[in-house]
Amino acid sequence: MANNAILQINSSGRKEGSLTRQLSDLVVKALRSENEALSLNQRDLSTGLPFVDESWIGANFTAPEERDEQHKATLSFSDSLVKELQDADHLIIASPIYNFSVPAVLKAWIDMIARARLTFRYTENGPEGLLKGKKAYLVMASGGVPIGSEVDFASRYLLQVMKFVGIEDVTVLDASQFDLAADNVLEQVRDQVNQAAVA
Hints:
Residues 6-193 form the Flavodoxin-like fold domain. Its cofactor is FMN. Quinone reductase that provides resistance to thiol-specific stress caused by electrophilic quinones. It catalyses: N,N-dimethyl-1,4-phenylenediamine + anthranilate + 2 NAD(+) = 2-(4-dimethylaminophenyl)diazenylbenzoate + 2 NADH + 2 H(+); 2 a quinone + NADH + H(+) = 2 a 1,4-benzosemiquinone + NAD(+). Its EC number is 1.6.5.-, 1.7.1.17. The chain is globular and about 55 Å long. It has six helices and seven strands. It has a single domain (5-49, 84-198), classed as 3-Layer(aba) Sandwich (Rossmann fold), CATH 3.40.50. Strands 2-1-3-6-7 form a five-stranded parallel β-sheet, with helices on both faces. Strands 4-5 form a two-stranded antiparallel sheet. It is an alpha/beta fold and 199 residues long. Helix 1 crosses helix 6 and helix 2 (54-60) crosses helix 3.
């Protein structure tokens, strides 16, 4: 890991009182308490992302050396999201569970960064993720679906996506396990982050 960078992705539709936003901020603080040199890049998905459409698919499936200026313009935002991910050593994805799965904006982000030749490639043995050597934290919260249960399709989906793009060092943090109002909550989170680092 050479970039000393954190990419923090927030996807909750709530700005105030969001458990995932609070906990993801604490993960950032915990990481920086161990390494002050870590830079931070924040991406708030709640303002909306474009969805994959016909023009995007056409541009993406055009060989890079054959793309015209319109193709490049169509893919430019996706390219910037991929670059953010490639540059990060630590990835924090904060996601509530909406209707058993992830928010639509987070799915849109995944569709924008799952790019053949950039974040994964096809081989004779199947797809291979290209974002190796990164650490990811999935910060999850739910109003009724237990994290890790058989009806939690959100964390299982995110774990699969991480593996698909080559990020296999992943820790799931369940917001319900932390008292975010406690005086020692940062210490609690720091302990979890440190345990994940040596696991």
